[in-house]
Amino acid sequence: ESCKLRAVCASIVDDASARMPLSYVHLVQLLVDTLVVLAPFALYPKLGVLTILMSPILAIFYRGFLELSKSLLDPFGNGDSLSENFSISCLLCETNAGSVRWFNAIQEVPFPTHAPPH
């Protein structure tokens, strides 16, 4: 038990020195949730019945950006996060395929690439 307590106490410093404090993440989560809940009431005087259509769209975008920002806190899944992580092998394959594509494209140029002799 004392080893577990010591490990938890040691991890507090790691969390405090993270790139973004956990309290900031919670604050942003609270602000987005508040915005999504209060947006229909704020939009109704201006949009009327269109508020019914616009509120879900607003919620989808704000919640999506929030999840994206959370996944960028640990993009490679090192902390066993449940959010969407980058696949390193896929990222490298796509990068290499793009570099070879442009390298091979020079062979198919429709105009001469060298100056004609004078």
From TrEMBL:
Q: Which domain of life is it from?
A: Eukaryota
Instruction: Give a Gene Ontology cellular component term annotated to this protein.
Output: membrane
What GO molecular function annotations does the UniProt record carry, in alphabetical order?
A: chloride channel activity
Alphabetically list the UniProt keywords: Membrane, Transmembrane, Transmembrane helix
> Which parts pass through the membrane?
21-41, 47-66
What is the protein name given in its UniProt record?
Uncharacterized protein
Specify the species: Haptolina brevifila
